[in-house]
Amino acid sequence: xxxxxxxxxxxxxxxxxxxxxxxxxxxxxxxxxxxxxxxxxxxxxxxxxxxxxxxxxxxxxxxxxxxxxxxxxxxxxxxxxxxxxxxxxxxxxxxxxxxxxxxxxxxxxxxxxxxxxxxxxxxxxxxxxxxxxxxxxxxxxxxxxxxxxxxxxxxxxxxxxxxxxxxxxxxxxxxxxxxxxxxxxxxxxxxxxxxxxxxxxxxxxxxxxxxxxxxxxxxxxxxxxxxxxxxxxxxxxxxxxxxxxxxxxxxxxxxxxxxxxxxxxxxxxxxxxxxxxxxxxxxxxxxxxxxxxxxxxxxxxxxxxxxxxxxxxxxxxxxxxxxxxxxxxxxxxxxxxxxxxxxxxxxxxxxxxxxxxxxxxxxxxxxxxxxxxxxxxxxxxxxxxxxxxxxxxxxxxxxxxxxxxxxxxxxxxxxxxxxxxxxxxxxxxxxxxxxxxxxxxxxxxxxxxxxxxxxxxxxxxxxxxxxxxxxxxxxxxxxxxxxxxxxxxxxxxxxxxxxxxxxxxxxxxxxxxxxxxxxxxxxxxxxxxxxxxxxxxxxxxxxxxxxxxxxxxxxxxxxxxxxxxxxxxxxxxxxxxxxxxxxxxxxxxxxxxxxxxxxxxxxxxxxxxxxxxxxxxxxxxxxxxxxxxxxxxxxxxxxxxxxxxxxxxxxxxxxxxxxxxxxxxxxxxxxxxxxxxxxxxxxxxxxxxxxxxxxxxxxxxxxxxxxxxxxxxxxxxxxxxxxxxxxxxxxxxxxxxxxxxxxxxxxxxxxxxxxxxxxxxxxxxx
Amino acid sequence: xxxxxxxxxxxxxxxxxxxxxxxxxxxxxxxxxxxxxxxxxxxxxxxxxxxxxxxxxxxxxxxxxxxxxxxxxxxxxxxxxxxxxxxxxxxxxxxxxxxxxxxxxxxxxxxxxxxxxxxxxxxxxxxxxxxxxxxxxxxxxxxxxxxxxxxxxxxxxxxxxxxxxxxxxxxxxxxxxxxxxxxxxxxxxxxxxxxxxxxxxxxxxxxxxxxxxxxxxxxxxxxxxxxxxxxxxxxxxxxxxxxxxxxxxxxxxxxxxxxxxxxxxxxxxxxxxxxxxxxxxxxxxxxxxxxxxxxxxxxxxxxxxxxxxxxxxxxxxxxxxxxxxxxxxxxxxxxxxxxxxxxxxxxxxxxxxxxxxxxxxxxxxxxxxxxxxxxxxxxxxxxxxxxxxxxxxxxxxxxxxxxxxxxxxxxxxxxxxxxxxxxxxxxxxxxxxxxxxxxxxxxxxxxxxxxxxxxxxxxxxxxxxxxxxxxxxxxxxxxxxxxxxxxxxxxxxxxxxxxxxxxxxxxxxxxxxxxxxxxxxxxxxxxxxxxxxxxxxxxxxxxxxxxxxxxxxxxxxxxxxxxxxxxxxxxxxxxxxxxxxxxxxxxxxxxxxxxxxxxxxxxxxxxxxxxxxxxxxxxxxxxxxxxxxxxxxxxxxxxxxxxxxxxxxxxxxxxxxxxxxxxxxxxxxxxxxxxxxxxxxxxxxxxxxxxxxxxxxxxxxxxxxxxxxxxxxxxxxxxxxxxxxxxxxxxxxxxxxxxxxxxxxxxxxxxxxxxxxxxxxxxxxx
Lengths: 766, 766
Known about the structure:
By secondary structure, chain A is an all-beta fold.
């Protein structure tokens, strides 16, 4: 897990580059001109927004074009027209085109930024939103729900857009299927660039949701093709397909911590998609399968380390006679001609089997219905280093037929089947991430309807020369798996410019304050040795690093009770080699009390922190991606780290990763850590705590709950190699056995015990 | 209810009439010749069964024809080849035709009589079964499950067949959708004559079931068109549609006690069907709606007296987040251009609402989700006599949009909406059952996608001159709603010949025994006055009436302990004006101990019955359609009527109708009646007890349960105008309040009380 630590610094910050050549006569310059133009618009008309910032613009684009003569809404110069503040766009009518809008520096005042509907009676059909950007247009509070794009109606398109930076609750793109006007949609969601969606720290952080359990019986026919999902880390589902007959083709899922999930609905086609992981993250998944009749073909899974819900291929157990909003049994699914290259363990069956939880869960939550009538055929599993577990099974695998799957490692998994064949074959790297056998492996199984799998991952014909796996040879020389330029608007480049960090040296409090104000995001402030007395909070609303070669001392005065460092949305602070001291009445670190619209980060390394109230005190709805305290000394505080303000039992929590390593805590009167996640929820699989190599002394003396380290509901907890000395508590910690938590090699003297409870009674959210 | 009493005498008894002209060379004469012919058969070949009775013939018809050159299995002369005993047919392969087979005098030794599949690997596609008859081919025991036709595969047809008389458990026709080979079926079930399916007395008596809850997510595309359902009374569902995209068009449901039920699955098309009821039965229903997206158009509902589950149009409440096998909410349903003529109350909304049952049912059984986004438009409601309740609502009706529906009576229902318009219009009878306004009512509502409703009930164009209701004028002169000749094989006539009943007079025991043996079904035996001493049981395996003008006396001797009258399958006995006496050790009436393959009937009128053990003692799995004791005197018995042998709690019961009227019961030591139905089940809505005008004296003296009349689980109970005198029991009866049961005008002297319990705690079957 440690390797993830610093990746957060790779922010995406949009920079508009392409200067656009759109020119039209008489652009409209304000809302009333816009409205009047819309009022008059007929087939073939073009309405152009004048350059500039359109603040608080709630655009309603309603009209009826024709197929040959649509009505177009565009901008004077792409990139020079932004919609800011409380802005939104609603479309209603027929044959409308929206081109080149740029939403930034604001958020929607309604449910949606772009909505293909004005109200139930006014829906858009046959309309397109293209070449638009929605960037960081996130609500002030992460629990305010919205969608950035709501598709309604039929035959609409969302294409070549760039959409990134949603931190608040609600899927980024949501397709609605409620009402006969909104089914059989044939919507086309293509060529979009879905940029980073930060970890949300709770459910409802999907990048796309198509339907809902209530409308999961509808024929949706949504086509999601040739999109890039780039680090879409919001939650465990990148795409949540909740309707029937959707297709997902040729999309690239790049280092996205989640899966394409067939959550509700049936008969999805998942063909030719590319899932790219890396060596670091265990959270990057592939495809998770629930329900009936899906065809999963020609997909390419590379270096995915996820398991269980996040496995490259996760086929779940269902709940017998499942309630509408839970887990139907998986039946009649075909998994054919996929390539699994260098994954940790490609196939997980009966994921979510929880028969052993019947003590803490009602019968209607017990997933005991195993997959049935599943065909897994003609797949390729290759691992550079031997990988002996092609199958991980959480229940008996008796409903899966394996046919002609080729592996290069011996199969030592529990599931032994002659349809999994270990075989020596040569593999070649054809381009970045792309591996294929040096020669076609022709012995393919001919299953029912397999003649419909006519093409491979690259669209090559399979009917002539066929091969096991996603790729048939020959592959064209310029075959690339990932080419970011193919996605999003051509006028917009989401790549960050990598600048060398600027280092400013300071030696007085005044210089420090000034340097902090002037620093650009990414700036480093180096403090000369000495004592810096400070009164007001230091506001961290950008990426800042404070360091010192000689242990500078920051002393925070008594005259102010705000935190020494106040973390603001998007702020990242790294403190190295600096000693902080307070006055007992203020917290060392804190957040805003509200409007923590996006995540913050905090790293403390090799520093001393003492005489504060709390080490970290956060507000409800605030969210840290990473909190790290390492090689440091923390002492004489009232309490340690409080990340327990999400008390609604809705699966939310206050930090994704918490690392406390190789540090000493002494004389912390109450708990050293309170890290909490309430509610039974599976949409997120956090938080994550690493608590290793620390020494805790004389702490917990006033803690009423008699628990020193509280981690209730946190899924991943590592607790190893710590020394607990003279802490008068009953429990050092209570770990969650069912999640594999166990204390390792801790030394306990005159302190409480580390208890492991197998199952946790949680409040059901469903 | 009384009017139903004697309709059961209208048996269907098949008589083959048409002499067929099929001639082929070399018909096969036995199974081994058949098998060898099948083995050799290729495209274009015809295999012909030789005339005669093929006993215990398990035919496997496997082969691959082509579209232009199918392989045909036919018979030498239609009607002269019967499959009898333990016989069946299985088809496997492509382009097969089965023509003219006649199954009678037997039952299948497997799951099915005709199955479009040999096993999972050998399925029939593109194959047709036509002009066949399956008549009374019912299992010996009604709890042995089978289907008479099982459709598997794709593109199969079942057409012009006559199928009737199934008394055992299991739908008559069942379409299977398990496995990808069996979806998107496009099966055609057309022009069949589904003759009588007798009341089953428990669930699983559907005439057709398409899919199951487990496969209810599949696209089935089964087309059920232009069939006749003639008195299909098996249970509350005539057709149970449990899959998606099925269509039901131009079928006639004639006096069938049940409904076309959209039980699971979505997006059914129900267009142009005709539902004919009568003045007598309250069990004849129309369409019951569950789930999403159905279009119900151009249907004609005539004289239906059913309510709730059996209403002409029953739109149910759903269970929120329903389990897969229970009740989804109804949403997005369109009900347009239907005619409701002379129905009791046409539209029932929120049927099954049971919020008040939360005490006795688990939350997962509570139907509280009201219909949503329902459009009811352009329908015609006409009643000759004023009918002020077009809508019966079991919950708030807030999800239904009413538009341009025309009524001829004032609307005094709770639901008031300007989309229900009372209007004077002239109506004309165009042919039997067929009524339409004298002039088109042109003011139609134009709903979403209504342009797709291009035709009316008769296929007349709606795009030019349109009208409210199922019919647009003009209607052709020969328009008939019901013409039985259009259905089933042309060589077979299921109509009974109505013969005048033969009356035989007897004056001695010997003559009586002989007359009973010789009598044809329907025969009447008239006993002269006197005493007839009898030893053996009188076996009733046909329709027999025993009557006397002067109170003949039948005395059954001590030397035999079998029942005086032993009811056999299909037996019907009517006793009039005769006194029966026994010896205390035998029952007056009884059934076989097993193999009661079909229902029996018993009527006793104006007779005296005394000195028997029980009045009626039945076996498990036996089933009476009607038991009637009227104007009679019953005394000095150990117990009365026992209809309580179905103890499995699966919703089965031993008699559909029990009438005990204007009779005297005296000195019945134990219970006078034990009539039982166990298990929570909604597929059947029986049994039915009318207990009126009786006097019960000095009975129940030895009854351990202290209940005189036991009716546990029986749905319809009428208990009125009785006198209970000196019966030392605690309860005369315990009635079920939730089903509307209440005692009326009973006189109770020195007897127990009649208790009403609102809700009955029952064993859940699901």
